Amino acid sequence: MNFQDEIRRGIPADLPSPKGPGLNVPHAPVRVLKGVLNQDERKLAIENALRYFPSKDHKILAQEFTKELETYGRIYMYRYMPSYEIYARPIQDYPAKTPQAAAIMLMIQNNLDPKVAKYPEELITYGGNGAVFQNWAQYLLTMQYLSEMTEEQTLAIYSGHPMGLFPSHKDAPRVVVTNGMMIPNHSSKDDWNKYNALGVTQYGQMTAGSYMYIGPQGIVHGTTITLLNAGRMKGHGMVNLAGKVFVTSGLGGMSGAQSLAASMTGGGGVIAEVDDDAIEQRLADGYVLKENIYTDLKELTLKIIEAKESQKAITLIYHGNIVDLWEYFVQVGLQVELGSDQTSLHNIDDCGYIPCGYKFKEAKALMNSDKPKFMAEIKKTLRRHVDAINSLCSNGMYFWDYGNAFLKEAGDAGANVWADEAKTKYIYPSYVQDIMGPLCFDYGFGPFRWVCTSGSEEDLWTTDAIAAECLEKMMLDAPKEIQPQLKDNLNWVRDARKNLPIVGSKSRILYADAQGRIAIASAFNKAIKEGKINGSVVLGRDHHDVSGTDSP
After folding, report:
1. What is the pLDDT of residue 550?
2. Distance between terminal CA atoms of the chain?
3. pTM for the whole structure
4. CA neighbours within 13 Å on the CB side: how many for 405?
5. CB under 8 Å to 514, separation ≥6 — which residues?
6. What Cα–Cα distance (Å) separates residue 352 from each residue in 25, 345, 363, 413?
7. β-pairing, 314-319 with 338-339?
8. Which residues lie closer than 8 Å to 334 by C-beta, 6 or more apart?
9. What integer pLDDT is reported at residue 344 of this predicted model?
10. Which stretches in the chain have pLDDT values below 50?
């Protein structure tokens, strides 16, 4: 059976051969069920999973799904992983009745490409639990629905579950997606764990469950813009960050972008990462160099000082815990200009943050064997983390929260992050509040993403040139307040071919206001009509789009 026929088939009528997790791909951590689901709820989770299949297969699948639930804490339905490779194919390769549906299929497959996704076989794109679907049955059904869809139908999807094709009209959305639907002030992480294990909700992150992830490039751009604007705010340079150093943590699906962004600002970046797999992924992507990875803090510090003195743009990796790094810098009195954190603290109880004194695998083992001790070690580490940051900030460092729940979790752990006795205000700002809001969002600048559905690199380079031409024209008469933003984005798109390895789809991002988006999109349309671009272009955005960073 070929690729197109397999898509049209959906869930096979006959049971496919059993499969388990692959040996050569990273896998999601085991989700702990103890205290999350009782016996009746475990039975309900199996029943929920069986709803996708004919009753004749329930006996075999019930046993299999029970084993998955007990082994992994979730039901992924590994047996139903497709036999074909998953990646963003040229749009004409997808079996579809409307090009809009084919484009959505392309975007879904990009999110699950093993070169792009963090845990592809668990359908998680990034962030530890940012899911495209909850299980492989949902993927198969969604792709089948998209292959059948006409331009007078809309597919409704809730937390990965395709609810069906509904009558609509040509100008209606082809797909309406919602994820999560849990209200933070009236629920807890235990609630989310419970309902995710039951198979009735998922965390779609920002662009995983909405099919708009374009690899680390999206956050590379956002981080680059954030760093440049932070430098301007603090007098570290209007054009670049030469001779300055930015210290942070994380080389995951989102945080890995920092490795490119730091050097693209012209400054020095130092990033700590404890997960071997994350470092290997960034080496494979070309985002970091093997010779710039250190395990010795003294050698690393000497390299930082050398880079500062020579004003060399470089990204250095500390293969170890971020807290050990911060504490060493306090000890030796290193001057750090900018600092933040991108550990996955939103996923704190599932190895999104690793306590000091433990390697990544040791921390996972502790989490699975003694969760209370694991959480106690994390809280102790968070208090040390904040103490070191506070010390460096008293010596002139500017630190901000990067939207990863760092300040919230640190505050809950008893760390010294409060500006008042009532504990209503943090001593550090968020990057939206202090940097991106006043300098970008207040002027209507936000992420403008596009994907060349032909799969052609030449189309991508053409769109880069078109976008650059539009920005150049805008700069001729733009107000001075937005000139730095236009210039940053012009430099970004001009240098993108040189600076950004292609990971997954042929895609790009820059920040634009309404005028810029309209101008670039209109220019793309004109180029497609004239045959200068060989296929359609998907336009999208992400959670930074002016309205803020809400994540229900």
Report:
1. 42
2. 40
3. 0.87
4. 17
5. 444
6. 19, 6, 10, 15
7. unpaired
8. 301, 304, 305
9. 86
10. 548-552
Encode 427-464: b = buried (16+ Cβ within 10 Å), e = exposed: ebebbbebbbeebbbeebbbbbbbbbbbbeeebbebbb
Neighbouring CB atoms inside 10 A of 332's CB total 10
Q: 329 and 336 in contact (C-beta within 8 Å)?
A: yes
- CA–CA gap between residue 435 and residue 511 (Å, rounded): 15
238 burial level (CB within 10 Å; 0-12, 13-18, 19+): exposed
DSSP assigned state of 435: I
**Confidence at residue 350, expressed as pLDDT on a 0 to 100 scale:** 84
Cα–Cα distance measured from residue 392 to residue 404, given in angstroms and rounded to the nearest whole number = 21
DSSP string, 191-255: HHHHHHHHTS----TTTTTTT--BTBHHHHHHHHHHHHHHHHHTTS-SS--TT-EEEEE--STTG
In 3D space, the residue among 212, 3, 213, 214 whose CA is nearest the CA of residue 93 turns out to be 3
Q: What is the pLDDT of residue 166?
A: 98
Could you report the per-residue pLDDT of 150-180, keeping only the tens digit for each?
999 999 999 999 999 999 999 999 999 999 9
- Residues written for the chain: 552
Please return the burial class of 41, using the count of CB atoms within 10 Å of its CB with bins 0-12, 13-18 and 19+: middle
Query: d(Cα 251, Cα 261) in Å, to the nearest integer?
Result: 12
Query: Collapsing DSSP states into helix, strand and coil, what is residue 472?
Result: helix
Q: How many CB atoms lie within 10 A of CB 471?
A: 25
Look up tokens 């991002």; give the residue. 509
- Going edge to edge, which strands form the sheet with 398-399? 293-294, 314-319, 268-273, 245-249, 338-339, 398-399
Instruction: Give me the phi and psi of 5, to 5 degrees please.
Output: -65, -40
Query: Assign residue 31 a region: left if phi > 0, alpha if psi is -120 to 50, beta otherwise?
Result: beta
What is the edge-to-edge ordering of all strands in the sheet holding 446-452?
Answer: 507-512, 446-452, 537-540
Query: Could you tell me the two tokens for 478?
Result: 């733009």
Helices (H), 341-449: 360-369, 371-393, 406-412, 431, 437-439
What's the pLDDT score for residue 215?
83
Per DSSP, the residues of 301-312 read: HHHHHHHHHHT-
317 vs 250: CA distance, rounded Å: 10
- What pLDDT, on the 0 to 100 scale, is given for residue 433? 87
State the pLDDT at residue 546.
57
pLDDT (0 to 100) of residue 287: 84
Q: Given the structure tokens 């992480």, which residue do they identify?
A: 189
Q: Tens digit of pLDDT for each residue in 200-237?
A: 999 998 899 999 999 878 888 888 999 999 999 999 98
Q: Is 155 left (phi over 0), alpha (psi -120 to 50) or beta?
A: beta
Asked if residues 123 and 103 have their Cβ atoms less than 8 Å apart, the reply is no
Cβ-count burial 286-307 (b if 16+ within 10 Å, e if not): ebbeeebbbeebeebbebbeeb
| DSSP category for residue 31 | P
